[in-house]
Amino acid sequence: MTNITKYWLLLESMQFATINDKKEHGDGQYLKESSLANDMQRLSHNVQEFRKYIKLPMKDLVRQLLEDLDLKHMMGEADELGEKGDLATLYSFYGVCMIKEIANNVNFISNAKEDLVAERHKCLFIACIQDIAQWSLQQQLHPNFYKGRPLLFSRHHDQKTNFKHLEIYIEGFTHVLFIKPLHIGKSLDEPILQYMAGIFSLLMACEDKEYVMADQEIINKTACLQRIWLSLRKSLYFRNLMLLKNNKILSSSGQKILQRQLLIRLWSPGGFNALVFALSECKKEEHSLEELISHLVAQPAYSAKAQKSLIAQILNFSRACVDNQELLQYMGVGLLSLRRLYDLNHENKTFVEGWLQTQLHILIQPDCEKDFAVMDWCDFQHLISLLFHLFCTSTVECLPSNLLTSYLNLILNIFYHVQQHNNTKLLQGHLKALILKCLHNQNAKDLHNIIEALSLQRTDFKEWFALHDCICFDENPLNSQELRIILTSDGPHLWDPLPALVIILKSSTFNLLSFNIFLILFRLLPKLIKEDEEEKKMSENMELLEPEDLQQKILREVNTTYARRLHIIKALESLVQHQPMKCMINENSNELLRCLADILIKFSELNKHLSEINESTLMITLILIREVMQISTTRTDDFQTVLSKPLHNLYENIDQQSLKYQILSVLHLLQGSNNLNARYDPLKDQFEEARDLVEAKEPYLQVEGIEKLIKLINCRDTYTVSNAHAIVAMALNTLKSPESYTFLNCVRLFTALVHIMEFEILDLLGDEYIADSSTLDYRLVVGEVILKIGRELGPLCYKYKAILLNCFMNGCRSQLGEFRMSAFSNLAQLCRILTYQVYQYFQELLHLIDCELTSGKYLPAKRAAVMVLSDLLEGMDNLFDYEEMLLPIYRLLKCLAYSKQSDEQIRIHATNGLKNLSEKCTKLVEGITASRLEKEIKILGIKDSPKRDLKNHILEMN
């Protein structure tokens, strides 16, 4: 066994040059830099030290070295190689022999005590390797490596390349450079660069017939390169390769060898990652790293297999960048390279599409069992984040968004589920960006098809992928910060994409996209109406159905016809209330007017008898056309030819007077004439003046405008009547005013409007009254308006008893005590008006009062509930008509009046009710007695027929 101790002593006696800071360990001296004379002096010293410890003649040393390195093909030239050479050659042979012996006899990897190497000896050994590589490998490279700019290697001017010596040095360093414990920091980066340059020098010399090597030796040298790739850092390999390739003086064979080696490494696993990290360390400032790598990677000359390998590597690299924030700075490199590879040919596009489908397939067709997790939440977040970076971080580097079109329904469904939970803001942002990017990049026709498919929930749209019906997103019981994605056994979950889409549009800055989608949804309404009319005709001609078929038909109609229309109307309502959308409508009024014109033309194609819903839709369309035409900058001549004919057709075919008013108003605007019809003489200026006053901020101006509108309504001004819907909108907005003087006059405006459009006003106010989203003060004011309207109509409001009574009885169930009190109070006064019509609601009314008295905690509400009974008795005319109601009322009032636990005010209300009942009973008895006496007189007198007993209630008189 070789005595290693002598080599440690030899290292300590030697002098080395290194670029590191000056250090001293024992007798070994580290010198910063030295001149050529000092180098020669140092080499001479080291050679003398070598001869003290290695006592072999040069020829024997070379022969032994060739045997140990298994260079049998060079054994015949051992004597020639061992001839006395210059000092650098002697130093190189001795040095290679020494580092080979140390590498073969010292176990640097072992942790055993007997194998441990002193740290100073390890440092000396590394310094020796660096120094010997500089004097052996670097001095014998191919001549072309010493030329060109920038200059990477240098050697003495009188030195010439000896490829045989270089082959020996390479084999010697092969024993040393792959010992990983010696790679401390970047200590061996330079020797590895010189080692690779030496291998390429031999390959280039063989290619150019400058040196002859057997095929097996060429294979061995190529295997050394493969060993470097597999054993050491791949980024270091690429760095060295790019440094060598940067030499423009290399021969064509040299460039070809380096290029082939670069491509082989780039296409192998991990090649792209290594290239990125290598070039990021040594890139030039004048070249962008993204452009440099993408130009190198996206070459159409590469084989199809190589291109697919690169795409797969880039996708894996992008995923790693998402998972590791430190690597996120390199995401742009991968994105640009991926996009350029994607654009090369159809095969690459198909490969990327297949990869995308593979990633999302688990959400489309999960392979797990019911009530089990579909995928881990962290994996799901990383997947969405990866898609966000691949498609949304740049317009140049990212993949085209049309890849997401087929998955738009799926992503919208995911957003619909996720936005219902907390701690998902970042995830929601990524999903929003994906959806908006996909929609924003569509042309007008494709956007219309997509929105129509989403609105009508068509499943046959292209290759439309949807989230699995049974997938559910819910809270993770094991981690409150996460959700879980499970395949539930509860069955399919119904959902509608439009609400989610509206939320995304309103939270974005894509105002033009929102406006275009608004127009598309608006154009869908007449299409649905036409389908409804056709279905109605078909249903009338259908034969009798079985009960099961009838049930399925009803469910289908509800889920398709009405649900679709309702969702579209809600989406339009939500969008039009968005302030940026209002600005877009003002700026693009011509587009909206064209859309309304198309809708009107489709209305004119319907039958004469419009349904109630279609009638209201037509009314809204006509009002919008008139409003938009008034603010539009387009000449009316442009629309006259389009709108005149359908407007005249509608005017002749419909019977509703309110619709005729609107049609005449639009025709007047189109023709610009005040004498279109003798019956139509609008006082537009007065109406607009009153409208401006109502929309003013000052309360006294608003009241003045309300007064003018009331006068115009009472006079049945035609233009004002045609704008009744606009007045209702203004009145609802003004009703929210905190000034009592303003909203009290607004109540008067509603009582005037009710004579024009009774049902619409009451229905609208009823919806406003029961809307929990409104403020309490506003709802109380709306209740006051409804009551005033009921008083204005008097007993004739029996036609709307369902709306009025249900409205206030719904308020009696509210959780707000003040609101319940107001509802009961209003109900009491309404019962006095509608006494005869309360009969069929009596049981529910009595139940509400009983619930309030037994379980209610707000005392004023209880008092108001008792007052309902008192006022109900007050409004009764003929007690015989209410005989079934009197006994429960009497028992309840008597119990409350004589109960010591009741509140004093409750007892007073109950006493008043009993008093009213007593008085009405007394009058009834007196009336019966008087009528009997009169009958007796008539019987004894003239024998004439008695008169019919007429009830004095106005409804019975009718």
UniProtKB/TrEMBL annotation:
SUPFAM superfamilies: ARM repeat. InterPro entries: ARM-like, ARM-type_fold, Rtp1_C1, TANGO6/Rtp1. It comes from the Eukaryota. GO terms for biological process: protein secretion. Residues 688-795 form the RNA polymerase II assembly factor Rtp1 C-terminal domain. Belongs to the Tango6 family. This is RNA polymerase II assembly factor Rtp1 C-terminal domain-containing protein. It comes from Glossina austeni (Savannah tsetse fly).
